[in-house]
Amino acid sequence: DFKNIPISPEFTICTKTGTELLPCHEALTSAHHTSSPLCLHRGRRLVPLVSDPYQWLDVDLGKRTSVSAVATQGRYGSSDWLTAYLLMFSDTGHNWRQHRQEDSAFPGNTNADSVVQYKLEQPVIARFLRLIPLDWNPTGRIGLRLEVYGCPYTSDVAHFDGGSALVYKLTGRPSSTATETVSLKFKSLRNSGTLLHAEGRGGRHSLTLVLEKGRLLLYQQQGGSSMSGGHLLASVGSLLDDQHWHYVKLERVEGHLNLTADHTTHPVHLPAELSHWDIDQVTSHRPGGGGTLDDEMPMSGPALSNRNLSGCLENLLYNNLNLIELAKKNNPQGNVTFSCSEPVSVAVTFGDSLSFLSLQPGAGAGTLAVEMQIRTWNRAGLLATSALSVGQGALWLYVSEARLKLLVRRQQRSVVELSAGSGLNDGQWHSVKLSLTQDTDSAPECSNPFGAFQGCMRLLSVDSQPVDLIKVQQRLLGNYSHLKIDMCGIIDRCSPSLCEHGALCTQSWNSFHCNCSNSGYTGATCHTSAYEQSCEAYKHRGNTSGHYYVDVDGSGPIRPQPVYCNMTEDRAWMVIQHNNTELTRVSPSPDEPQHAAFFHYASEEEQLMGVINQSEHCQQELAYYCRRSRLLNTPDGSPFSWWLGGPGTGQEQLFWGGAVPGSRQCSCGLQHNCLDPSHYCNCDADRDHWTNDSGLLTQKETLPVRSLLIGDVQRPESEAAYMVGPLRCHGDKNFWNAAFFDKETSYLHFPTFHGELNADISFFFKTTSASGVFLENLGIKDFIRIELRSPSEVVFSLDVGNGPLEVRVLTPAPLNDDRWHRVRAERNVKEASLRVDEHPPSTHRAPTDGHIHLQLNSQLFIGQTNAKSGTASRQKGFLGCVRALQLNGETLDLEQRARVTPGVRAGCPGHCATYGPLCRNQGRCVEGDRGFHCHCGTSAFAGAFCHQGTRWRTRRRRSSLSGGQEHRVSEEQESAGENMSLSFRTSHSPAMLLYVASYRQDIALLVNAQGKRRTPGASCGGRGRFITANATAERIFAFCFDTPVTEITLRRPRTKAFGHVLIPDLEDLEPELAAVASQGFSGCLSAVRFNSLTPLKTALLTPDPAVRLSGPLVHSNCAAASSANPYAAETTHSLSGTSSIPISSLYPVIPPGVIAVVIFVTVAALVVTARFVCSRKETYRTQQVKASQSEDGHEFPFSSSQADSQTANNENPNEYFI
């Protein structure tokens, strides 16, 4: 082991105007060279004559050294010191590479005497070090004393010319080992070539590591070494052809393989045939290149390069065996030398819009020739421009849409434009050549209509003369500004990609972009999920039953999954289907003693476990139907059947639906009501008639059901059937996890939040306070804080090392209204954003190439600031409720901490103030400990939000529904009017919709054909309409959903009392009205309401003896609205309010003593399609019932049913055939 020791270097000082070097003990022997040490305290000091951004210091360490730290001091007894600088390294004194880490600019000194040492995160192997001053004391000049710390570095190096190779044949090795490792460093002069080929025994399998367009690719090959392609296993790294050393390591630990490139490790899915590697031969080239692919081995990537490596390998180790050292003792193939020589190639970097290089053209008359190689990520930029002869125009050579273009413009002549090439923004080197015959002009053209070029150039020549960029750097040739000479500063911002969840990364010179399409995530880095985490969350947004994507861990690694959300009045069920939820018969089979069924779910394993773990309750129906087929063989026999359930492939379970784990019973055994009391299952009685054991599995640790094994089906008389329902879960433990802070000094604390590169925070709050801090987490300098700064302002504050910033959202209405509000904040390497409720988000862009890691170290405080920190916010603590607090998709258990923390209470009641408006059509919001539900008892509607009408459909026109519900009012209680509403769909007229009988006068709602009205009224077009009627003392107002109001004068005063509500009845009608009523009503009718009465809902959902039905009822889905987008919320319309908007006409159709109210609503066209669809549905349903019957001699009395079908909605309007 070597200790870090100071290195006494030779050093070279190169500046534009010379250097002043003050001696420590002896005078300089040269203005630019010395052999004396440049050291701290007593050493020499560097003070250039001119202090400007173009100074630098080169240090030659004499040989390659492992540099671990640098230390700086200012000039002794002066005001000259550096405050910031850059470090660059090189092996040759050219092709410098900037050292990049969290602080790309190294901090300098604050005075002349103190020493500032900076330790590198990873040691750098180099011979040359370059220090570039960035900033210095504004009242002084550049002044520097320097020491470099490191250790000696030794290595074995081999150089390959593209035709040479090393071959190592393993001998005397064990048959197999648990761990194998191959590691090396390489430096390539080309962007493609084979680095390593490892061949297994017998040549059956091999791995090939190749460099392809600067990326490192690992291939698997089969069938011998003559193949030219293979199966792509991994791709890592980028821009690895930059003529710098790169580290590569292949490591197999048992059946796992890791590929490391520099500091990035990529796990490789290893095929089963390579789980025991058994390498027989290692070579630095791929034998047999140039062949064709084996047809039996499809290639999952580009064809392997036929090139061998042109460059150098260093420290090629196989299981710590140095293969280059061994090769020195043997004869390698081809021209292999054991030193690394490389041509000098000086590049220049154009880093921003101010970068330019100006050169005088050559002396050649009449021609202009320019050659260069370029490397860029940008799709556009100017490469070169030049004036033509005096007054004759100019030319521009530029990149546009990733193509090379030439524009020549002459005065009073047409414009000539040429283009060539494509894909020039791929980060690879591309050659550009331009030759033009012209009348030369010495004055250059300086205009640039195309934007600045950002990228690298090398091998630049003008008029066939190479441009010496070192002379340009020394200001001896041409002119330049904002250039980095003798280096290519291109950075691949997509390797490794900072885009999350599989999003595609694209880049320009200064930035990158993440394409989140089809990923299910949003944001600048595709970090935040676009979906809610449960059906419970969707319900509280007002969404009704339907298909949705849920993301159980938010921004975590588990992908969104499609589920069916069944929203009932009091629960939101999440339904996950599998491959067989139907009732399935098992026929006797003497040749197969057991029948196995396996269930594959629509969700992946981690998605299933996420749903089960976060849900408050899960269940799955398990049913067994039997005739002479025993089940668990209770009480003492070995079970014939069992099932596997739980995580992974599941654990064997010996109980049945409705029982508990370990009981070895069925539901009837626990309830003591089995057919045979001596058995614990009905089927174990072995009866010669059909029976069943069924029930719900509710123990979450045993769910879901993975497979089922049925044993007693081999006897000739045995018959059985089984059904495993979908997985159904409700409740969201995370969504309602809440805490109430009743004092400003109250707070909860949690471990440090780790969100270095990406951090998202979301929560709900409600308060009556005007301000308060929601949360805060501090670091040494970094911090994050979210606070309510005023009643209408939420602020997200943070600092990641680039200086504090704030993201604010101002809301039009105050947020301290004691209602729930949602806050979502996100910080990533590109931006910080904040969103409150559904208001537009506010964002703040992060600086390019700034600090990106959020480094926190204190505890996370909820409801208060960290009082122990001097940098903590002085805002007061939060008073109110916080719930569903999640950081990077993980929910903080506020309730558990609140139970043991004074001043904080677990839970937070009061939800109807926020969610009550979701209850429609006079539904009533009912508070719950963990949420709310809509009570629809007094509404004509049903469903989760009292939004679905109870529908019926008559197929026979004489079907009717009548009731004797009384609605009486006295003279003193006389109301200002009567309110009626209903929805209908029909293609027949005339027809009676509603008839209300009273003791002195009646009201009738009729459908009449347009153009055939004999009495005043209103009419609406279309097949289905929602109508309301409001009768006052003198007038009735009529309104259709999309037509204007019609006002009709009553012919006689309205009665003061109404009696029975009839739908419709022929009794006691006058002939004219009876003629209409005798034809009945054919169509769909729903949501019938008369004042507070709901006769249709009462008849169909809550039967009442006072309601009379004639005709059979058959459930139907006709007239049900379908959503165009099954993953979006259903569109609903709330058509009821404090005052009804009438749509009908009132006119007398009964002789004196009776007044009838008639509503003329249009339905002129026959709805043939609707009737046909309903008929087809009924026919299909009948065929299903027939198909479920047994085809053998034994009647199977059970029909296939499914509680939660993906195509049927339990919350859909209830419709009936009558």
Automatic annotation (TrEMBL):
Ranges of Polar residues composition bias in the record? 1198-1218
The GO molecular function terms of this record are: calcium ion binding
The cellular location(s) given in this protein's UniProt record come to: Membrane
Membrane-topology annotation of the record? Single-pass type I membrane protein
Q: Where is the F5/8 type C domain?
A: 55-151
**What pairs make up the disulfide bonds?**
C881-C908
- In residue numbers, the region (Disordered) covers 957-979, 1183-1218
Which SUPFAM superfamilies does its entry note? Concanavalin A-like lectins/glucanases, Fibrinogen C-terminal domain-like, Galactose-binding domain-like
Record-stated family? Belongs to the neurexin family.
Organism superkingdom:
Eukaryota
Report the protein name in the record: Contactin associated protein like 3
**Alphabetized UniProt keyword annotations:** Disulfide bond, EGF-like domain, Membrane, Repeat, Signal, Transmembrane, Transmembrane helix
Question: Where in this chain does the record put each EGF-like domain?
Answer: 490-527, 909-947
| Residue ranges crossing the lipid bilayer per the database entry | 1149-1174
GO cellular component terms listed in the entry, alphabetical order:
basement membrane; membrane
Where does this chain mainly localize? membrane
One family name in Pfam for this protein: Laminin_G_2
Q: Which residues form the Fibrinogen C-terminal domain?
A: 526-578
**Laminin G domain ranges (all copies):** 157-340, 346-488, 737-908
